[in-house]
Amino acid sequence: MSKILTVAIPCYNSEAYMEHCIRSLLPAGEDIEILIVDDGSTKDRTPQIADEYQEKYPGIIRAIHQENGGHGEAVNAGLRNASGLYYKVIDSDDWADTKALKAIVARLKELEEAGTPVDMLLADFVYDKEGARHKKVVHFRGVFPVNRVFDWSAMGHMKETQYILMHNIFYRTRTARESGMVLPKHTFYVDNLFAFQPFPYVKKLYYMDVVFYHYYIGREDQSVNEQVMIGRIDQQIKVNRMMIDIMNRQNFEGLDPHVEKYMYIYLDKIMTVTSSLLLVSGTKENLEKKKKIWAYLKKTSPKMYRRLRWSILGISMNLPGWLGRKLSVAGYKAARKLVGFN
């Protein structure tokens, strides 16, 4: 019998924290498959730790060693090798809530046994920020029905602080594969593509209001650190453009209109993140890059440009003049503080 769930853990020189992540998954036992994807680690014992766990937990853990291809290629490798009916990615510096994991695995098994499989199960995640007294939980209460199968038409109003990220998602493995999703190599921020491209292939959903994923925020070299993101802004822009291209290629005719609505909402947020980082940087070169990403959107899809440019977020990111830029940056920083992000 197939495993109910495959969890892939992309690891790159992750010796300092990967075992915490692995151990948080082990209580699910034989129902899950854990793929430790060593993405060409050379600076520490990541490859050896992966092999040690594979030897200690045969039938549960598999170690996959590959040449360095970046986070996206590690996710791709996990999806290619997954034997579970559902597929989940958890980064090596993050971890799972064991109680929530067991509840999710049990529910996925129940859905399969009842003949009512879903294409995507969603669960909550928490920003586990180092030293923070209040840790922000991203949930979907009031947005999606709880503990029942539904389709996109059941989606309610989503607040600005609510969004579906890789951390929330458990895909049906077949659905993720059928979407044709192959994440680019050597590129950061591809988790935005993971939580975007397969959505038109998702017909049946399920939401469990349990905090499963602990998203650790605190390492100085973390990819979501603001200064790190500005230093890698070209990769953020690359992912942003790919998301625009996905929307331009997708034929939404015959699909639930709520899918298209949500994808617009999420692209609106990504355009805002990209624009905000370029404004925070404030260099002449980066301000020009901001103009270019909006020009690319306008050139490739005037209809999508009008919809996003004149949204509340689009307007806030394109206020004129020096004072407008200051107001945009202030709004962005306030939003980051509200979310408890970085």
UniProtKB/TrEMBL annotation:
CDD domains: Glyco_tranf_GTA_type. Coiled coil: none annotated. The keyword Membrane does not apply. The keyword Transferase applies. It holds the Pfam family Glycos_transf_2. SUPFAM superfamilies: Nucleotide-diphospho-sugar transferases. Residues 6-114 form the Glycosyltransferase 2-like domain. GO terms for molecular function: glycosyltransferase activity. Keywords: Glycosyltransferase, Transferase. This is Glycosyltransferase. It comes from Candidatus Merdiplasma excrementigallinarum. The lineage of its organism: Bacteria, Bacillati, Bacillota, Clostridia, Lachnospirales.
